[in-house]
Specification:
The chain is mainly beta and about 100 residues long. It has one helix and five strands. The chain has one domain: EutN/Ccml (OB fold (Dihydrolipoamide Acetyltransferase, E2P), Beta Barrel), CATH 2.40.50.220.
């Protein structure tokens, strides 16, 4: 899974029937310091993430099964959570 930020919407009036009801979003992956890291990706969203929100995204085979365990959907990434809060503890010094 990756941490990312919603930076835009993708509009598609014609798409595969298996994803016809899914909203598509541009997601900018974030690094450990919460700065942009890597190329933007398009992720399907069924939970209602909004512009500027920090989200958790799953990719690959888990994404294809995220909405329906009985059949695969043709997506590479899916928003699976909206981050309410996060804590990143500082790395302890080598001395302590």
């Amino acid at each position: 899974m990756i941490l990312g930020k919603i930076v835009g919407d993708v509009w598609s009036t014609k798409k595969n029937d298996k994803i016809h009801a899914l909203r598509l979003l541009f997601v900018q992956p974030l690094g450990k310091d919460l700065t942009p890291c890597g190329e933007m990706l398009i992720a399907a969203d069924e939970i209602g993430a909004g512009m500027g929100e920090m989200v958790i995204v799953t990719q690959g085979a888990p994404a294809m099964q995220a909405f329906n365990k009985d059949s695969l959907i043709p997506v590479d990434a899916v928003v699976v959570g909206i981050v309410d809060n996060l804590e990143i503890p500082e790395k302890p010094d080598a001395d302590g």
